[in-house]
Amino acid sequence: MSTPPDGLPIYRVLTGPDEPAFCQRVSEAIGLGYELHEGPAITFNGENVIIAQALVWPALP
Q1: 41: containing domain
Q2: Which end of the chain is less crowded, N or C, counting CB atoms within 10 A of the terminal residue's CB?
Q3: What is the dihedral of CA 61, 9, 13, 16, to 10 degrees?
Q4: Where is the DUF1737 domain (predicted)?
Q5: What is the mean pLDDT of each run of 10 residues along the chain (61 residues)?
């Protein structure tokens, strides 16, 4: 597939608290065919650890 399904963008950044639901969202994107772009960014907002993970749709060879 040359483009992401359902009109999704080729570049996405998922963000959220460091909890299983965030990991599930990233896992679902990988299952669709996205690849991780670099490592995650992690910060603390005073209450929770917040993670951001960039994902890209693989380029055609």
Answers
A1: 9-56
A2: C
A3: -140
A4: 10-56
A5: 89 97 97 96 97 93 64
